[in-house]
UniProtKB/TrEMBL annotation:
Residues 20-198 form the Guanylate kinase-like domain. It comes from the Bacteria. The gene is gmk. Belongs to the guanylate kinase family. Keywords: ATP-binding, Cytoplasm, Kinase, Nucleotide-binding, Transferase. The lineage of its organism: Bacteria, Bacillati, Cyanobacteriota, Cyanophyceae, Nostocales. It catalyses: GMP + ATP = GDP + ADP. It is found in: Cytoplasm. SMART domains: GuKc. This is Guanylate kinase. ATP binds at G27, P28, S29, G30, V31, G32, K33, G34. One of its GO terms (molecular function) is GMP kinase activity. Its EC number is 2.7.4.8. Essential for recycling GMP and indirectly, cGMP.
Length: 199
């Protein structure tokens, strides 16, 4: 797989992020990854955003094939068994996975591909593709993270509690990643991601 992807060495990647073709954006739920991704894609339509598959129910306004591929648990398990996912994880009671073929095709054709995924999946990608540039988005504080999850108003109390519990564990892993960016002021965080991707 490494030969297929032919991404440059880690040392080169750190000096020149653009030589890496795969970008992993991770961080706790509610930190603002999705919002940052949307703005990033608006500014840089040439980026390829990998649409994940999930067994989670769509939130109001979410569109199948755009936000996620919303699939059943049995379908997910079938795809997983067939090796169709580049990485996958269970998060807050649902499965999430990155379609392997689409991402590899895009990387091979020279695209800059961005994955927005949770910690376990990000670790899997780091193991499979150590040359990928990995970015961890941190909240300014745990209280602010809770405010954002609540403010989004799209999760049940139970889901919020699970996400916050998981967030505590996730934040401790921040320094495993190449870059840590605090999403306090939105524009500042967005500019920092841009700088990492485009120098
Ligand atoms: P994630 O994709 O990481 O779960 P979202 O992108 O859904 O997070 O953001 C969670 C909430 O936080 C949203 O309501 C979003 O508008 C808000 N948000 C994102 N970034 C900021 C920021 N820098 N300051 C304040 N609120 C933010
Ligand atoms: P949400 O349910 O809020 O859309 O996503 C929950 C978490 O799953 C977020 O941290 C999001 O980044 C992550 N996620 C989304 N797609 C994938 C994926 O394909 N793989 C993994 N591992 N995590 C994902």
């Amino acid at each position: 797989m490494m030969q297929v992807l032919s991404i440059q060495s880690r040392a080169t990647t750190k000096e020149s992020p653009l030589s890496g073709k795969l970008i992993v954006l991770t961080g706790p739920s509610g930190v603002g990854k999705g919002t940052l991704m949307r703005s990033l894609l608006q500014r840089h339509p040439e980026l390829y955003y990998s649409v994940s598959a999930t067994t989670r129910a769509p939130r109001p306004g979410e569109i199948d094939g755009k936000n996620y591929y919303f699939i059943s648990r049995s379908k997910f398990e079938q795809l997983l068994a067939q090796g169709e996912f580049l990485e996958s994880a269970e998060f807050a009671g649902n499965y999430y996975g990155t379609p392997r073929e689409a991402v590899l095709n895009q990387v091979q054709s020279g695209q800059l591909v961005v994955l927005e995924i949770e910690l376990e999946g990000a670790r899997q990608v780091r193991t499979s593709f150590p040359e990928a540039l990995s970015i961890f988005i941190l909240p300014p504080s745990f209280e602010e993270l809770e405010n954002r999850i609540r403010g989004r108003g799209q999760d049940s109390e139970e889901a919020i509690a699970r996400r916050l519990q998981r967030a505590k564990e996730e934040i401790q892993a921040a320094d495993e990643f190449d870059l840590q960016i605090v999403n306090d002021d939105f524009e500042t965080a967005l500019n920092a991601i841009e700088a990492a991707l485009f120098g």
